[in-house]
Amino acid sequence: MTNVAVQIEERQPARHVHAPAVASGVARAEGQQHPIKLYLVVWGWLFVLSACSYFVDYFGLHGYLRWSLILLFMVLKAGLIVAVFMHMAWERLALAYAILLPPVLVLVFVAIMTFESDYTHLLRVMFFAGAA
Fold first, then answer.
1. Within 10 A of 43 (CB to CB), how many other CB atoms are there?
2. Of the candidates 75, 66, 69, which has an alpha carbon nearest to the alpha carbon of residue 104?
3. Cβ contacts of residue 69 below 8 Å, gap of 6+?
4. Whole-model pTM?
């Protein structure tokens, strides 16, 4: 029976136990550490984008330009937060697609519905305005 146990152990791959890396007596935790400078730069950009969003109202912009700029700054800030603070920039591409693709598709479908509603509204005005 000991021969069988020896043969089974020979067939299995060796399992190595890795101890955490020790540098100058301090144990390092596994995982990727990002420099604090990255987070400070992102905070700076978030502040700048928020200030730009504030200045859109301060300068009194109106109409589509106002809403376009506000939405642009909002999307840029959300992208920075998702990429850096939620660590999506370092995730696998499949996971990023699984999280980011559905909201993009919702926006595409909303745009399609908006164009369709304008078309339907135009037809109603053309055909039913003269009947009244």
1. 13
2. 75
3. 52, 53, 56, 61
4. 0.54
Cα–Cα distances (Å) from 131 to 117, 121, 123, 125, 126, in that order, read: 21, 15, 13, 10, 10
Q: How does pLDDT run across 72-123, given as a tens digit for each residue? A: 999 999 989 988 888 877 888 877 788 778 989 999 999 999 888 877 777 7
The answer to whether 28 and 21 have CB atoms below 8 angstroms apart is yes
Which residues lie below 8 Å from residue 85, measured CB to CB, with a gap of 6+? Answer: 39, 42
Q: Which secondary-structure segment (H or E) carries 27?
A: strand 26-27
Q: How far is CA 17 from CA 5, 14, 32, in A?
A: 21, 10, 20
Task: Return the HEC string of 57-118.
Answer: HHCCCCHHHHHHHHHHHHHHHHHHHHHHHCCHHHCCHHHHHHHHHHHHHHHHHHHHHHHHHH
Radius of gyration over alpha carbons of the chain, in Å? 28
